[in-house]
Design a protein that fits this description.
By secondary structure, the protein is mostly helical. It contains eleven helices and two strands, in the order H-H-H-H-H-H-H-H-H-H-H-E-E. Strands 1-2 form a two-stranded antiparallel ribbon. Helix 2 (35-45) crosses helix 3 and helix 2 runs antiparallel to helix 8. The radius of gyration is 19 Å and the shape is elongated. Belongs to the Nth/MutY family.
């Protein structure tokens, strides 16, 4: 088992420092050209890879231009346009309903507050945080996706299980200036090394400070289950 730093705040800072060195160009991987496209891409990314979303939105964003197009299209047609995305029927409904709300209540503009964004169909804190950070340059939280959830538990940064509770824990130990970048670093490391089922602990830059490193620890702290 690796030996974490003495406090969780020190552990978080060490994790950020090492991951920044390993992934100097870490940034959002979803492709979009405006706030609405960002919102739609993030809605589609739930339980779906960014690679798949980018492939789907390449033609989607050519066909639809602005909230009016999404609001007016029959939901069945929009769903058919998304049929390679997980839960495409539900997501088509979320997108159509969100665009209707954007037109009716926000003058056709994607809102710029957490409260207004989370009132949109299919939008929780994670999606809202992404839209605020990358669409409005407003950072008021940490995006907790599956990678952040997994890594923060494995690295001993939190014992919480729900994304909302994990976010609150992380906001107390991750320096505010890194709230946005922390997510991208975790995503890159989660994809490259600290994967869900078979993490490459032998080649991990964090292994010596990871209390759940495979080979030393018997437990995967992300799941609480034995390796």
């Amino acid at each position: 088992m690796g030996t974490p730093r003495e406090t969780r705040a020190e552990q978080a800072e060490e994790v950020i420092e090492r991951l920044e060195e390993a992934y100097p160009d870490s940034t959002i991987s979803l492709r979009y050209s405006n706030r609405l496209e960002l919102l739609i891409a993030v809605i589609l990314s739930a339980q779906c890879t960014d690679e798949r979303v980018n492939k789907e939105t390449e033609h989607l964003f050519e066909k639809y231009d602005g909230p009016e197009d999404y609001a007016n299209v029959p939901e069945e047609e929009l769903a058919e346009d998304l049929n390679s995305i997980t839960y495409y029927n539900s997501k088509a409904g979320y997108i159509k309903n969100s665009c209707e709300t954007i037109l009716e209540e926000h003058d056709g503009e994607v809102p710029d507050t957490m409260d207004e964004l989370t009132e949109l169909s299919g939008v929780g804190r994670k999606t809202a945080n992404v839209v605020l950070q990358h669409g409005h340059d407003v950072v008021e939280g940490i995006v907790v996706d599956t990678h952040v959830q997994r890594l923060s538990r494995r690295l001993g940064l939190t014992e919480e299980e729900r994304p909302e509770a994990i976010e609150q824990d992380l906001m107390t130990i991750v320096p505010e200036g890194y709230w946005q970048q922390f997510t991208h670093l975790c995503i890159d490391h989660g994809r490259a090394t600290c994967t869900a089922r078979n993490p490459d602990c032998a080649d991990c830059v964090l292994a010596d400070i990871c209390p759940s490193a495979k080979g030393d620890s018997e437990i995967d702290l992300a799941s609480g289950e034995p390796w």
